[in-house]
Design a protein that fits this description.
- This protein has 134 residues and is α/β, with parallel strands linked by helices.
- It has 2 domains: 2-103, NAD(P)-binding Rossmann-like Domain (Rossmann fold, 3-Layer(aba) Sandwich), CATH 3.40.50; 106-134, no CATH class.
- The protein contains 6 helices and 5 strands, in the order βαβαβαβαβαα.
- Strand 4, helix 4 and strand 5 (98-101) form a beta-alpha-beta unit.
Length: 134
């Protein structure tokens, strides 16, 4: 399996370290906005070919899609702040990759009457797209 790991902070590093000895893992792209951090984790893992380090801007869906296509990934693993969930989730769908996450999309207020009407509730953005993924 080829994985695009978006975010290589503490949690992302732990994910990579746990995945490293697994025989099913062919490739895990260590992608982070802080490329030096991705390179540090790559060095700790000791396998540059299996764990390439790449810059990614998780706020830009095109950046995610481009990197996913470059490595022809099977799975996009999201290990960044939930404010980036929509872009990463939609990018995974567009490139036909599986998607794994640590959190749901955040709630957003009703744009016209935020104090009296509910907006999009926690996770609803992803739940509403479930049929498209099936």
């Amino acid at each position: 399996m080829k994985v695009l790991l978006v975010g290589v902070g503490g949690v992302g590093e732990a994910i990579a370290a746990i995945a490293r000895p697994r025989p099913w893992l062919e490739l895990m792209v260590l992608a982070d906005y802080n490329i030096k951090r991705a390179e540090e984790v790559q060095k700790k893992l000791g396998d540059d070919k299996r764990f390439p380090a790449e810059f990614i801007d998780a706020s830009q869906q095109e950046s995610i899609e481009s990197l996913a296509k470059k490595y022809n990934v099977d799975l996009i693993m999201n290990s960044v702040d939930p404010i980036f969930n929509r872009q990463i989730f939609d990018a995974a769908y567009n490139v036909r990759a599986k998607y794994m996450d640590m959190a749901m999309t955040l709630s957003s207020p009703n744009p016209s009457d935020p104090f009296h009407k509910p907006g999009v509730k926690l996770g609803d953005y992803q739940f509403e797209k479930a049929k498209e993924w099936e």
